[in-house]
Design brief:
alpha/beta
């Protein structure tokens, strides 16, 4: 009998399997599709210091873990050795200026070196910026990593340590005995375990609803567009107007039936995050929209992303479009993940929103400590599922 069954083959589940196996725990990871199929393989792959100070210890553990595993990773992680630099920019719009300033101040309070720059300095840093970009903040931050490679490497390294990875196997329900969880039921039958770690992203809530109760995790669709400029145009990550907001701005109240009746399904929130890559491509994000069904609620979001990106960097208008893709991110009402025990034999690790890569290995450290009884690497209380 395995000691632990991990449900979910995204970044959180793979990181948990790796950390548990590293500690000598018997692990079986179950994924209904392929590893990194969802949002874990469809994101910017950026490691940025969070604006929320409660998330910073989790981020630091994650970065440290990825650095340590990089030499033995079976799939190249392409993790930057040095920070790329993150440039927040704004035009004359007061909301853009206020948002960028607030974000810069928040990360500065969390230890990031920040330089305020005027229009002339902006142009010397990134000459291709539109003339209307008149103010900015240069953050000494931003490492790029291949998110799919990171997720798969964690899982493969876990197998080297004795874990079993089973893909294309759907978990249908938990095995519940009184107040205890003792495994899962899959399409291949029962798998018993001492502990189940639920790391199934936005699918976590549906799996728990019948046998355990509701947890406040729901899906939010985020789009990306990949471009290939004729020649390299950028040296830094570029963000317009504080797309990565403050903790209270990341809160996402649930959609009610009344909301939909009175105003229709909520539209997408579209920001601007422009990422130059080592292969010459440029990745454009980001967006957020409550998920209504499997197919996109608004297929025009990629056009909105490109409209905003070309406003900031007009030269991108001539770049070839290589494609667009989306992933569904698991969101919580307060923007922080749920990590901890729900009852005996059941640990949840879900609700990381767009920060799964940033928080993945740190989450795994908390989960492993809960399973083994070791002291946690940092305070777990901000992530206690009972807080909501």
């Amino acid at each position: 009998m395995p000691d632990v069954v991990v449900v979910g083959g995204g970044i959180i589940g793979a990181a948990c399997a790796h950390e548990l196996a590293r500690r000598g725990v018997g692990v079986t990871l179950l994924e209904r599709d392929e590893l990194a199929t969802g949002a874990s393989g469809r994101n910017h792959g950026l490691l940025l210091v969070p604006t929320d100070p409660l998330l910073v210890p989790m981020y630091r553990v994650s970065l440290e873990t990825y650095r340590a595993m990089e030499p033995e990773a079976p799939v190249p992680l392409r993790l930057d050795e040095e920070r790329l630099g993150f440039l927040l920019v704004a035009g004359d719009d007061e909301l853009e200026r206020a948002g960028s300033k607030a974000e810069a101040e928040a990360v500065a309070a969390n230890g990031v070196a920040v330089e305020h720059v005027d229009a002339d300095r902006l142009r010397s840093i990134e000459p291709v910026l539109a003339p209307e970009m008149t103010e900015g903040w240069l953050l000494d931050d931003g490492y790029r990593v291949d998110p799919g490679a990171l997720t798969v490497s964690l899982a493969l390294l876990a197998t080297d340590l004795g874990a079993e990875i089973r893909t294309h196997l759907t978990v249908r329900s938990l095995i519940v005995q009184g107040d205890h969880v003792r495994g899962v039921v899959t399409d291949d039958g029962r798998i018993e375990a001492d502990t189940v770690v639920l790391a199934a992203g936005p699918a976590s809530a549906a799996l728990l609803r019948v046998d355990i109760g509701n947890i406040p995790v729901r899906g939010s669709r985020g789009w990306l567009v990949n471009l290939l400029p004729k020649e390299p145009v950028l040296q830094h990550l570029i963000e317009l107007g504080g797309w990565h907001g403050l903790p209270e701005q990341n809160e996402m109240p649930p959609v009610t039936a009344r909301d939909v009746v009175e105003g229709g399904w909520p539209g997408a929130m579209v920001g601007t995050l422009i990422q130059p890559n080592a292969d010459g491509t440029v990745l454009i994000g980001g967006s957020r929209q409550d998920v209504l069904a499997a197919e996109p609620e608004d297929p025009n979001v990629p056009a909105q992303l490109l409209r905003s990106a070309t406003r900031v960097v007009p030269a991108l208008a001539e770049a070839d479009v290589l494609g667009a893709r989306w992933g569904v991110r698991p969101m919580t009402p307060d923007g922080r993940p749920l990590v901890g025990a729900l009852r005996d034999g059941l640990i949840v690790a879900a609700g990381h929103g767009s920060q799964g890569i940033i928080l993945g290995a740190g989450t795994a450290r908390l989960v492993a400590a809960a399973v083994t009884g070791d002291d946690p690497a940092f305070d777990p209380s901000p992530f206690d599922p009972s807080r909501i």
